């Protein structure tokens, strides 16, 4: 078995989700739009799966739309919110450490004339609510802030952002990328006070190819795609019934004590990794499953390769930015040697202390056999 410590990139599908997908694909395979019994059974199952996800998220099933992934949800939220507020203004606030799925559509809007304020993190990877308060303007139409950063594991002040928007009487919609937060940290969309919230299945042991978009009741958004009337016309395309079944099963299989279990393994990792010669802890992570470290002078890509040769898998930062230093670590203002040696370690309920021992042992071995660059 590989030692997989890159669970922020993706997770191994849990048996319950795989079984649910298999059954939906081979038995309940009707098209939910078909009027005959097989189709109607698929429609009924989809309704149940939506209710199961809504139950875990803490919202009404009608507030959820199934999408293809977190990237689709983030893109949709940013574009649709800008469109929604087009008569009110052209100012957007986001953070410098959002995922590319938010930053890229924001960049596209900037090219169309929107003004963008990027809130910068401090050295620990935290963004201040006061900075957001100061950045709000009467023409701000969108604030997009993630709940848990995917490379640092830090928590961002989303509920405080909602309060700031309310206090300012701002027309801005608040979008939250909660892809790394769902099931790992406690929240509901109502507690956060968000208008839009994005989830992705493959981070919580469901397969790739399914996301969920929360849209606050009463908010009328333009769809990203046009076509048939599925998902109330908001997300046309034949519904991903097998993926939805798997997502609902993964939610049901996620046990109450998982976050504490994951946190315990991470604490052990932070302690063990501190003993690796030269290793620096970059972020302990507020969320239970992500931390980041660096071996200054050892390029991340080399470390990832050498660890991979030993059957240990970690990331050199976000898996979406292979090859170049991540904008998230760059935003922390780390010295270049530290920046180039960053590793993200991320855990799942399956992670064990033995996995951590293999990682710490592998890194120690590398420091003994390879000389650090100056
Ligand atoms: N947002 C965050 C914070 C993520 O970590 C990811 C995935 O890495 C995404 C969005 C994109 O999700 P997906 O891979 O489902 O498109």
TrEMBL record:
Please name the source species.
Flavonifractor plautii 1_3_50AFAA
Q: Which family does it belong to?
A: Belongs to the class-V pyridoxal-phosphate-dependent aminotransferase family. NifS/IscS subfamily.
| UniProt domain Aminotransferase class V: residue ranges | 3-359
The name this protein carries in UniProt is Aminotransferase class V domain-containing protein
Q: Does the keyword Iron apply?
A: yes
Domain of life (superkingdom):
Bacteria
Which cofactor(s) are needed, names only? pyridoxal 5'-phosphate
**MF terms (GO), sorted A to Z:** cysteine desulfurase activity; iron-sulfur cluster binding; metal ion binding
Keywords for the protein's UniProt record, in alphabetical order: Iron, Iron-sulfur, Metal-binding, Pyridoxal phosphate, Transferase
Keyword Transport assigned: no
Q: Which reaction does it catalyse?
A: (sulfur carrier)-H + L-cysteine = (sulfur carrier)-SH + L-alanine
Q: Which InterPro entries match?
A: Aminotrans_V_dom, Cysteine_dSase, PyrdxlP-dep_Trfase, PyrdxlP-dep_Trfase_major, PyrdxlP-dep_Trfase_small
């Amino acid at each position: 078995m590989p030692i997989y410590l890159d669970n922020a990139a993706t997770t191994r599908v849990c048996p319950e989700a795989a079984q649910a997908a298999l059954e939906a694909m081979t038995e309940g395979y009707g098209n939910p739009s078909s009027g005959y019994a097989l189709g109607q059974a698929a429609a009924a199952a989809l309704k149940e799966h939506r209710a199961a996800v809504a139950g875990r998220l803490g919202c009404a099933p009608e507030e959820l739309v199934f999408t293809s992934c977190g990237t689709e949800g983030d893109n949709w939220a940013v574009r649709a919110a800008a469109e929604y507020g087009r008569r009110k203004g052209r100012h957007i606030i986001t953070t410098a450490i959002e995922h590319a799925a938010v930053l890229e559509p924001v960049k596209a809007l900037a090219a169309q004339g929107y003004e963008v304020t990027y809130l910068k993190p401090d050295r620990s990877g935290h963004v201040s609510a006061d900075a957001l308060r100061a950045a709000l303007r009467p023409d701000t139409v969108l604030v997009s802030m993630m709940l848990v950063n995917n490379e640092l594991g830090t928590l961002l002040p989303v509920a405080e952002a909602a309060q700031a928007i309310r206090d300012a009487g701002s027309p801005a919609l608040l979008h939250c990328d909660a892809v790394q937060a769902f099931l790992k940290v406690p929240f509901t969309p109502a507690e956060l006070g968000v208008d839009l919230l994005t989830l992705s299945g493959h981070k919580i042991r469901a397969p790739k190819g399914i996301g969920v978009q929360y849209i606050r009741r009463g908010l009328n958004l333009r769809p990203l795609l046009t076509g048939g009337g599925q998902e109330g016309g908001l997300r046309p395309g034949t519904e991903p019934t097998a993926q939805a079944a798997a997502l609902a099963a993964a939610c049901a299989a996620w046990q109450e004590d998982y976050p504490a279990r994951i946190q315990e393994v991470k604490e052990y990792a932070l302690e063990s990794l501190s003993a690796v010669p030269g290793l620096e802890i970059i972020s302990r992570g507020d969320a239970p499953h992500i931390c980041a470290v660096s071996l200054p002078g050892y390029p991340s890509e080399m470390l990832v390769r050498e660890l991979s040769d030993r059957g240990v898998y970690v990331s050199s930062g976000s898996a979406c930015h292979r090859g170049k230093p991540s904008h998230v670590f760059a935003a922390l203002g780390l010295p270049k040697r530290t920046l180039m040696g960053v590793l993200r370690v991320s855990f799942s309920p399956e992670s064990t202390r033995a996995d951590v021992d293999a990682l710490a042992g592998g890194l120690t071995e590398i420091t003994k056999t390879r000389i650090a660059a100056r």
